[in-house]
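Throughout our pipeline, every protein is held as a single compact record rather than as scattered files. The record that follows is passed on verbatim for readers who wish to inspect the format:
___
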Amino acid sequence: MPPSNGTAPTLVNGVSHTDSSSAPAINGDGAHDSAPRPTKEDPPTLDQSWRHSAANKPMGKILQRLANQCLKDLRDTVTSMAETPIDGSVAPLTNGAVSHLVDKSEASVNKKLQFMKFANSQRDRFIKMLVLVDWSKREEEMARLVDLKVWQEKELNAHRDAMHSIGLTKRDMFAAKMPNPNIEGALEYLSTGSASRQPDLGYIPPKRLTAKQLLRTLQDMNVILITRLNLHEDLLPHFNNYDVANGRATFHVAGEFEVDLSVAEEDPASPFYFIDLRFLFTPRARTLPEGLRAQIEGRSNQALASTGLQGCYDFLHNFVLTHKLNTLRQQAIELLHGKWFDCLKIEDWRRVHRILVVQYWTGLAGKKSWIELGISTGRGKCAAINSPPTPTLTLKWHRSKDELVTDTTVEVDWSVLDFESIIQAVVAKHISWTLGQIRDQLTALAGTKTRLETKLCTSDSSPQACHLSLSLPGLPEPITVSQEPFTGQFVFAPPTLISMQAQQRLNSETNREPAYIAQMLAHVMANDARERMSRVARLLDWRQLQLVKQDQKTLVNHFGPGLLVVRAYQCHKAWSKPWALAFTFSLTGEKWWIMRLEDRSDAKGQVLGQAIASVRHISSVEPLANQLSFSQDLLLKVEHAAVAEVSYATIAKDLEAKAIPYKFRSIRVLTGGNTSPLERLATAIYVPALPLMHTSSRSKERSAKPVGPVRLTFDGFDVTSIEGSDTIDVKHEIRLQIGPAQFKHLQEYLAVKRTQLHDSSAKQNHDHASVHENDIVISDAGAMSLRSRVPFGEPFISRIQDHMKAIERMNFYLSTFSKHKIQCKTMTLSRVRFTYRATEVPLQAILLFSPDGRQPIKLRLEPTGNNPHQRIRALLEQRTNM
């Protein structure tokens, strides 16, 4: 009410209710006095958001769609009219005369009816469109009308929501209400033990049965049950195992449940009723919850009343199967939150009906794998039985996306539910299958001549026990391949830099095909051998050669198929340029080769580098490579064998150039000394007949016949350094058989020397006569042995021929000495020392021969200072060379 003094009331902020212009503006409202203020009579602001929504279409779009629809309907109508057959009874018109008769045939009437329906429907549409066009002329008024309608609907919805919310709140408050306490009734009941207001229903409780009566009743029920089950009931195969006791029949279904049933009447038509249910699988609850038990009892009694024992079994059987799946699902969830964290994926239970789908190895890239635990119809197992099929629990295993595994069965004990054992069995079989495929691919990749040894260990239940061991001769220890059970990632052991890089690359790629993994493992072994070989080679100062890259076909032609690693080395700086040592690795093992290199040029003639011209396998190293791992000792033996192979290759090429027949043979030689000799195989070149070329024919004792057979064997090499330049001298042993009359004077000379050595005990247990450093040895059996040196990689046959000519020369000089009673002091292939006058100071002469026998013989007289023949030394030297 306004104040009694008649003045206008003052508002809170000092604004007068009657005259706002004269009142003071306390909070600065004076700047906005001119702005209109909303009053109670102003209408509310309407929501006009619908005008800009996608549902508001322009009028032109509606007209366009209506026209298109009309044209489409017209075409359909005309097409339908054209397809309507014409009655043949109507006679055609002649001469173009028009008949005034009306065509009343059924086809004509149908066509007219179709066209009239089309016209009527289109007329209605366009009338509606006309109304909309008229409304569009008053667009703003119609829009305001729509605004009002939208506002009204929002208000109505708000009222409905408010009433609904109030009703829900009222209903939810029932549980929170507490009735008023009945204090008077409580006091009366506590003091007297009864309540006057408690109604008396007049119920007379039955008399309690005595023990005999109860026993007799149970026995009668047992008789009724036994009689009914044996005479009146057609028992299911699953209910054949039962027993009757205590007035109930207990049916046992192995691995699932046992149910207690009873009857209330003797009538065979009366239904059984449910008493109790117990599970026969683990894990299980000791007692069923009351709510669940009540539902099971109600559903079981309903099934017993409608379909008898068959319905009861079907209900309980399906319930138990579903309960088992629920139990397995709970176990899977526990594993997902525990040991298998982030390694499993469980499909949403609501998306699949009674199927447990669990994907394992979720972190792996590429194709996925999963298992499905579900309930099958059982039709396949019961096809030959007259009884209806029984649903069963089954496991389906999808390996690598869509591949349904049918050739391998996973044994599952459905009476002992353990999802961890199930997933471990599946993973173990998956790992075993993968490793088996890898082994097969490696075997196929290695071929039949491989020395690759594979050992596959599999298991049906333990993924940790599954692994594949790969070993090759020369590897320090086998390579073990396994898979981590939880993540599915591959693990290579022993861990090295190469194996770890390959393992990381394999686990990050999507390609996990066994063929690809086998190829990767082969490269792991090859690269590991290459690295170990390179480390030892650097210690020995071997230099790796960078050759011109050649295609795979060329390498296969040189080294054979399955090649994984090729490395070329120069073992010593003194090795001649065309020769190199090659190391190759494949699944057949490691091999060593000698290579002859050649310069490779481009089209412009510019030298690109060295390329492989030919190769020669060093077979003598393979037994050592199979027994020893990479070490300095092994590589030194390889270098020794490589020098021998280069020497043999040079000799063979020289023999072929001279058209001299030869062949290679394996011989057994003793090494290691006299105390503990070791027998080993060595390679020798046999020349059946070695021709000799002569430059002089002064002696008739010198025969032009070829000598042989000749055996050439490698006897090591020496490295010498002269003025900072290293050279390699290859030593060879030349053996041949000579006759008793051949080189007779030389044999006599060596026999005398052997006797002198034996008498003087210069060598103990020595049965050969020697000439300076054992250059020539002739045994009592007539076997001659020569030792010769030749620079690395140079031809040798001419040197042998020169040696044989030198031997003939030695024999010639010995025969001459024998005729003239001249004493020979020493004799070698390069010099002869003899005493031609025995005076107080013996006069001696020395003949020096060139290595190839093509240079003049040099004569040296001793003693140098007082030999009287020094004045004619040049003349004597000239006469010697005639």
Summary: Residues 179 and 214 are 44 Å apart (CA to CA). The first strand starts at residue 242 and ends at 245.
